[in-house]
Predict the 3D structure of the following.
Amino acid sequence: MAYIATYQGKEHRVAIEETEAGNYKVRIGEELIEVDLIKARENIFSLLIENQSYEVDVDGIGRNLFSILIRGDHFDVEVEDEKVKKLAAKLGAGATGRQDIKSPMAGNVWKVMKKEGDRVEAGDVLIILEAMKMENEIKSPIAGIVTGMSAVEATGVGAGDPLCVIEPLEDTAR
Amino acid sequence: MAYIATYQGKEHRVAIEETEAGNYKVRIGEELIEVDLIKARENIFSLLIENQSYEVDVDGIGRNLFSILIRGDHFDVEVEDEKVKKLAAKLGAGATGRQDIKSPMAGNVWKVMKKEGDRVEAGDVLIILEAMKMENEIKSPIAGIVTGMSAVEATGVGAGDPLCVIEPLEDTAR
Amino acid sequence: MFKKILIANRGEIAVRVIRACRELGIGTVAVYSEADRSALHVRVADEAWCIGPPPAGESYLRMDKILEVARKTEAEGIHPGYGFLAENAEFAERCAQEGITFIGPNPRAIRLMGNKTTSRAAVAEMDVPLVPGMKENLIDEEHAQKWAEEIGFPLMLKAAAGGGGKGMRKIDDPRELLNAFRAARSEALKSFGDDAVYMERYIENPRHVEIQVLGDRHGNIIHVGERECSIQRRHQKVLEESPSPIVDEEMRRRMGEAAIAAARSVDYDSAGTVEFIVSGKTRDFFFLEMNTRLQVEHPVTEMVTGIDLCQEMIRIAAGERLSIEQKDVVIRGHAIECRVYAEDPDNNFLPTPGRIVGLRIPGGPGVRDESGMYEGFEVPIHYDPMISKLVVWGKDRESAIQRCRRALSEYIVKGIKTTIPFHARVMLNEHFIRGEFDTTFIDTEFRVEDAAREKPFEKIAVVAAAINAFRIDQQKAKAAMAGGETRAMNPWKMSGRTRALNNQ
Amino acid sequence: MFKKILIANRGEIAVRVIRACRELGIGTVAVYSEADRSALHVRVADEAWCIGPPPAGESYLRMDKILEVARKTEAEGIHPGYGFLAENAEFAERCAQEGITFIGPNPRAIRLMGNKTTSRAAVAEMDVPLVPGMKENLIDEEHAQKWAEEIGFPLMLKAAAGGGGKGMRKIDDPRELLNAFRAARSEALKSFGDDAVYMERYIENPRHVEIQVLGDRHGNIIHVGERECSIQRRHQKVLEESPSPIVDEEMRRRMGEAAIAAARSVDYDSAGTVEFIVSGKTRDFFFLEMNTRLQVEHPVTEMVTGIDLCQEMIRIAAGERLSIEQKDVVIRGHAIECRVYAEDPDNNFLPTPGRIVGLRIPGGPGVRDESGMYEGFEVPIHYDPMISKLVVWGKDRESAIQRCRRALSEYIVKGIKTTIPFHARVMLNEHFIRGEFDTTFIDTEFRVEDAAREKPFEKIAVVAAAINAFRIDQQKAKAAMAGGETRAMNPWKMSGRTRALNNQ
């Protein structure tokens, strides 16, 4: 299987073959490496790569998106099936300006600053969440119109819960 | 629901009703107690009984048999549905002298001392297991005839694996 | 000695106090809010009583409910931990009225030290050095201009009722003065319900160093060394150590004497902490405030002195004399505490409440875990995000840093992001290693250096992510196959079903 | 200092050495057998190499394979831990031949101290007290009778090549002598391949007390206090403490001098331990043997002295001078170590290999975890059943016992039974608390007292078991209902299916 793994905008082609249980032949770019992997426990892997030992903490944080923690550094890496990605690129699918704003954390909705139909600029505060004695402002990433607002003041939200939807100006102008 | 819980041969009738999630009204003998239970994690319960806090470690170790660990003491308690137990007692079921000897631990079979057809006395060593640099003798609990021997020298066994079967003398004599 | 103590707190500090009680053979009564039934302090106490809904105002701050539980359980003492009711003089008084021992200092000490103005006045009488500035509050603009001339620029404008960095502003230029005075006043009123402000000299390269004191109810007061607390994020301590890299034996003696004098000014009779601001340039030190409670960072002092401050505080409250004299206090080695917060250090320290699904606590020599969490624990959204503290000891500062680095590398918390990686990076920072920092360090220099750091394991991360995707795809394929053998052949539907099962 | 060290061991001691290396900035190479790919030492080392199949004879004892990995990885030193190759003089010599530093003493010291007869002869020259008895081996029956008269009864007959209590027998009566002599000889031949035996005086109320020594490669030797190791089960230590309840300052000085003399007799140049047998009656002490390696119980000494023995041992091997002098050694407080075995204390200490499915390590002040396990770890059946050590420190023995009790109450290992409950019960035993015990205590008095103990929580256990059964029944009923809605109605089949899913 071949994948395209993207970290901070840089794409790496990674081809993987399992030679025996837990042993992988991995080609990343031009480099060929052999990986001996043990699942030490759920989402924690012990990797031996050329006898170098790494403990790697892997969390799925979205579709095809993994948060990797190695020796104090986090890496958010997107991994897509090479074929699927090529097909998607050909179809030009998935590229829309619509922004689904999701809660970055569990907490309470303290204030809802905009309502449906409001026009917002990029950086405008949409919602203020509150958790653990701290307030956190949720800002609009783009200029546009609030076309959906599901956050309700004084109610709880979980991490990843939808809060509101912003349509970019061009789209709504159509 | 009512149960018969047996510890070291002593039977306790325990009637249980869940009044709300995690809250139980328990009648043990004549005594009525209220229990607030949280599953802190798999097989570990936090119990509040009249505001006394107990951490209880519960493991299933056989059909209806639970090993309970509280503050350094183990208790092996058998719990049976009262109705089922009464029915079983009426039918007189389950009482046979045949002994299925199971491995008390994971390890290797070091020596098989008896073979099928051998006559054994109570206390005779049947098999010697070995694990972690220690030998452990498996002895016959009764006098009888070895009617099955599944242990094979120099092979591994898991805890609970059948090792051999002893039929009591009366039975085989029939 | 007490037979039973009620612990009016939650989280790691409640667990800390329960452990101290257990080691002293004292029974423990935990109280908890409805959000905390599954909290560790409830599980490890002898008794536990629910005192109300999740908001602290309806539970952990409810004096009446807490005192009611104390009466019912016949607890002889109440330990307030830190935060909540720990520095509430009224609560200490109400305990006394009920005949229950408040495990802390006398109410007068709490009250006097709880206000910047009264505390400064009290310690000034004992010749404890104060930051050159005013002993009273500013009256009006003219008053402000007169004092500004006397103190000189840059100067600090502070709210009398403030704390934790709130209501403070630095003024560099005379022209900023009047606007700043007006703004500070209105801010102070809004934040603290009190518009009193005052001015003092701005200390360059300010470091925060505090002295731990112990006083008993027989008039004995000693100090047990200092803690360096300059590693702060947004004026909140995140890492503390003892001894301080800038304090030598002579300075420790002088600061210790000043701290004892400050404590004596209010007849201090418990464990307490005298905070000083120290100029990183001149090493002059000035009294800031006194915290009349056990501090979050008390373990570093315990590890270098061998004194159990929490036990000692309980003994004192029971009327015992201090078990050590000043000359018996010997500092051995060096200790560092890292506060572990449920916050994402790579995303602006956003809170990350949630369930701890995996946990590996570091072990080995010189490592101490002070934690209120456990595997399976749901970090509640209602309280402070500090979930545990990692404390290490080494024979000197270098050893302690290396050990801390090693311990952090072993620390795994799964399910939520924490500040553990942040601490790991602090331990590698050259300025930190050399001990060259002040209270602004983390928010300025470190932030820049940290952002520019190398990430040597990028390739490994990419490979690990790709293998993980590969394993998930294989599992899906396998599950689809297995389903296909026994059921109708719709692989798409099957794979959806499998995913649902796997997610259970 | 070394750049890289190979650790020729597994389990908790390999992890201990890796931690020491990491704290010293030294790279680490782990070796592992095929049974240990998922072991903790493999995960925490910088590099890891497989050296063969599970049996130690095919992996951890294979000098050739270990040396090959050392060459390949350019490791400059090899730390042998304890057990396996730790006291193998040939291995030390082969390391030297390869230009790799063996992190332990010189081979001659290992060889001389590895044999009872040669070690006794060596230390006798330095006037180290020996148990009154023979310095050579018994020749024949006549020789035995002559010596028995001289020593007097009761006496001990011992195998020269024995150790750990094997090949020892007590003789109370002259009439038993000749039969015992014959039997002991043949037993010694069978067990050790050597029929040499000798006789010595039987020590009443024997206690096992050992002195930790440190020697460097520049001729300096110091001692760093004693450890009390009399709490033994079947001649195996299960719990150790420092200091010993029967050793006072003067006795420590005398035992320390004797230990240094013993070490000097073989030019000892590493961390090592001189074991003494001490009469609980007279407090006379006699040399038993010297262990030329790091001991399992070294952490208790570390905790009371603040000296990191494992790091010190590495520094010495790198040619450094001892970093401390005898006068700098100060003992602070008291430490206790509990060895946690994968054994069932309520079932004759039967081994319990298996998977650790849940783990809660105790925390808080004065608690140190030295573990080779983790949640998810499968304890292999091929090696020693010791899976971790819990070490606690307190300001005195009473505090340490109370803290140990508290820590044990927090310790949870799920999936296998361990000796944790056994230790909890030792901590409550009156003889132990008073320090009144000898090496026979656990197998005799304690066993009886422990069996007769009260179990105050029987009712709670019965209730918990019944509620657990109730919860399982309810789950089954719920699952059967849920299944019944969407599928054919066969509740029995459904409940079977549900059970299978739940067990996944």
Summary: Chain B touches chain C at residues 36, 38, 40-41, 46, 48, 51-53, 55 (CB under 8 Å). The mean pLDDT of chain B is 86.
